[in-house]
Structures are given as C-alpha cells and as structure tokens.
Amino acid sequence: MDDRTVGSRQVDAFIEDKLLARDPALEAALRANAEAGLPAIDVSPAQGKQLQLLARMTGARRILEVGTLGGYSTIWLARGLPEGGQVVTLELEPHHAEVAAANIAAAGLTARVDIRIGPAIATLDAMVAAGEAPFDLVFVDADKPSNPAYLRAALALSRPGTVLVFDNVVRDGTVLDADSADPSVQGTRALYDAIAAERRVDATAIQTLGAKGWDGFLIGIVDA
After folding, report:
1. DSSP sequence for 55-69
2. What are phi and psi of 66, to 5 degrees?
3. Widest CA span in the chain
C-alpha cells in the first residue's frame, strides 16, 4: 500500500468525521454483512451520502438500484426519499437479499424498499414488459459485464430527467486497457461506448480515490 493510498483513506476518514454523523443503523448493517460473509464491496460512507444527496437534489420519488448486496447503499438511497417514495432494489443472491432485508428493517425503512430477488436482467425485462412506472434515479452497482444490458433496461424504465449513476467505472485505471482479459474491464469499456453512442443521455465520469481505492462514478441524465 503506497503513501497515496494511505493518505486518501485518511482523507476519507477526515471527511466522515467532519461531515457525516455517526450512524448506528449503517454501522450495524456493515457488521451484519461481515458476519454473514458478504464481500466488503459496499460504497464508502461518503459515497453513500453522495447518493442520498443526489436523491434529494433530484427530488426522486422512485429509485431503481441494481445490486443490493447487504442493503448498505439501499439505506442511504431510501433515506433520501420523501414520504411515500420507494426504492426498488434487485439482488441475485437470496442470502444477500435476506441480510439486506434485515438491515433495512433495523433501519426502519422496510416500507420504502422493495427487494426483488433473481437475475437482474430477467427482473428488469419483466418490469419493462409490465409497463412499470419510470424511475427518477437509477443506481447500478452490480456485475460489470452486464452494464450495457443494465443501461438499456434503465433507459426503458426512465423518463426525461432521470439520473443514471454507475459505480466502479475506473477500476484502478484498467479501464484504459482495451486488450484486458478481465470481463469487468471489458463490460465497463462497453458501458462507456454505449453511453457515448446514446443520444438520449448526457453524461460524464468522475474519478474517486479513497477508502475504496482508485475508481469512479459515471453519472448521466436522460434528455429525451
């Protein structure tokens, strides 16, 4: 671990100390995830707060999350909703969804969250076929090879003004490697290509360096 990585983690800790109050429900969710054997790949606290603020800034009432894991980011998003708002969150693994449901219940947010279990692409296709109402904010943090498919589904479930957020789009800089054999790198590159070709979306990506290493978010808005 180099000095830059150590320093960036210290800066994250400084940000959390100055701007984020201690939160027993979120801390308990991370402990429960670890105890249940879930991978420690949740967003950082500062990133979670960013998602919550995005929900508030956009006035979101309906949020779609692809990739629930243990519900840590789900709690952040749900707290950004007004009364009557809802997060629909998709999770492949029943065990993860069970842990998430318990964490969300402990945070007092069960009424705001709809967890749907199964392969996300199949769930999204069913949602589109059923004519489900559009979402105001879409957060994708799931398997990276499926990112282009998630984008297509997100657009089908969007309206003009819907905000799209994709996590892990820098991947320690490996996104530059066109010849990478890593399916996650290739899926991320394919996402960039799909966004670049998509006239309905105005987007950018921001690099991040902190507790989660060197990575980034892609953020866009649906124009039409």
Report:
1. HHHHT-SEEEEE--T
2. -105, 105
3. 51
